[in-house]
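Journal club prep — side note

Before the paper discussion, L.F. wants everyone to see what a predicted structure for a comparable chain looks like in token form. Sequence:
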Amino acid sequence: MRCAALVAAAGVRGRLSVLIYHRILPEPDDVNRWDVTAAEFERQMRALRESFSPLPLSEALERLAKRSLPRRAVAVTFDDGYADNAEVALPILRRCGVPATFFVATGYLNGGRMWNDSVVEAIRRLPGPTADLRPVGLGVLDIGDSDRRRDAIAGILGRWKYEAATDREARATAVAVLAGLLPMRDLMMRDDQVRCLRAAGMEIGAHTVSHPILARCADADAEREIVDSGRYLAELLREPIPLFAYPNGRPGKDYEARHVAMVRRAGYRAALSTAPGVAVAETDRYQLPRFTPWDRDPGKFSFRLAVNFRKAMPETVAMM
């Protein structure tokens, strides 16, 4: 009853909730439990269709500005550009009648691998029960079971996330070499899969080239990342790219006011953070909030989404 009441209360007009996904796994994965499976995702999309009003992000933003949003308006987004977005998520989205926007880190298309995935797959493949990672400054890690492997991965990612991008990449590559990890040519999307998403009516947005923490980049490098990703996608799809998502996306930690200004200069019409909450007509269009729907159960998923509708003052960076 409480969930139903909250969903009903979320029906106030003029609020937009934007969800973030990354990967959609074909089957359960004992090492990767932070991404949803295809079955879980389909249940969530059916819950969206039944209890909320899913819209394409561009349309939702236009209607937000015109104050004509339907009740319980939501938009679905994906970050990074994983191949399973096209192979697994797209058929589910089409079956459920839910539109989505895919923010692509263009430097990893066509056979690339992000540094964090190098770490995940390396730790997955190391034989255990311990991993001697002293050559990369990590000591000897306990990876005796799936829980300990996940803990090891979380510790490494948290330790390296805010290092200089070149150092982070070099360390992740070194771990991959220690594990004998071969290149993964099918982890990220190919150009033709991006085109396929667009042809299916989905929206494509930019997410930088190499997914750096913009706040840790020199200004010239940050601007190049912001501009070049949109340019690549515009040439690929032969149309303007109006939407951008900040990598990691935490205001004041992962991006700052100068990066918001760069996104504006690059010609994007809107940009999204990862600050939780809902967008209202007064929300900065270049710092739109999003949240990750962690709950696997459809009822709890709807409950969390309804609670998010009550957070109308998302965190942003102050603009001068």
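L.F.'s comment for the group: The mean pLDDT is 93. Keep this in mind when we get to the figures.
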